[in-house]
Each structure stands twice: as C-alpha cells, then as structure tokens.
C-alpha cells in the first residue's frame, strides 16, 4: 500500500468516526446507521446486536434520558491490512441528565474497538466493541451563563443542519 492510499484510507475512517459521534449527539438515526455495514454487529454493553439496529436504539434511549450529549473521539490508532482495518479510538461521552429535579453530568471514558471493512471503495464499521475504562456521575451545581448562545438540539433542528 502506498503512502497516499494509506493517508486517504485513514482520513476516510476518521470521517466515519466523526459522523458516528455527530449522529449520536444530534439524535440522527440515519447518520448513525450509515457508519455500519448492513451485516455489522455492535456490542455496546446493554445493547448487543446489529450495528444499524443500534441507531434507533441509542436515539430512543438518549432522547428519553439525556438533555444534552457530547461524544469526543481521541487517540485513534488504525492498523490497515488490505480491505480490513483494526481501529481503537478513545471516547469521552458526556450526558447531561435530570435526576430528582437536579442536573447531573454522566461521564463515560472508554474506547471503541472496531473492525472496519472497505467494500466498493468505502470504509464502514463491520464490528464494534465498546470498552469502559472509567466513569463518573457528578452533580452540576451551576451551568455556564449561556443565555446569549443558541443551545444545541438533539435533532435536525440543530444549527449544524442549517446550510
């Protein structure tokens, strides 16, 4: 594999990872489902099943549970082997939720251990295993005074969809 193709493949895989996070944080089932091959599997702890089936599951769960979410991807390690890539990505997922009339922040620090496959020139996830490294739940004593800012939406009403 030449260096240019390696860079192109790694960039394509990174785009898939970002698309997944954006889909989860915006509650966009189509964006989430599109990162998985139709025969992909996902092991997300409480959810074990098809990758594309995870999309409606997670959107429904987060819409019922979280006021806001943010998933950040870091430390992406990609091992390419022809049309297969073994990818480990660190994830920091934060969820603002209301518990007993109080706001709390749920923080999940873990990793996505993925097998990507390139089919028809396109990279998508063939299998995802989510690994928990640590987590924390803490009260939110006060929020940033954000009245002047537009607030993010967990839907296509979010500012990022306006073009």
Strand arrangement, major sheet: 2-1-6-5-4-3
Q: Which quaternary structure do these chains form?
A: single chain
Please give the radius of gyration in angstroms.
Answer: 17 Å
Instruction: Give the overall pLDDT as a whole number.
Output: 95
**Helix amount:** 25-40%
What does this structure look like?
The protein has 163 residues and is α+β, with helices and mostly antiparallel strands. The chain has three helices and six strands. A hairpin with a 2-residue loop joins strand 3 and strand 4. The mean pLDDT is 95.
Task: Please summarize what this structure is.
The protein is built from three helices and six strands. The protein is an alpha+beta fold and 163 residues long. The radius of gyration is 17 Å and the shape is globular.
Which terms would index this structure?
alpha+beta, globular, six-stranded mixed sheet, single chain, 3 helices, 163 residues
Topology:
Layout: H1 3-26, H2 29-33, E1 36-43, E2 48-50, H3 51-65, E3 68-81, E4 84-99, E5 102-119, E6 122-139
Parallel strand pairs: 1-6
Antiparallel strand pairs: 1-2, 3-4, 4-5, 5-6
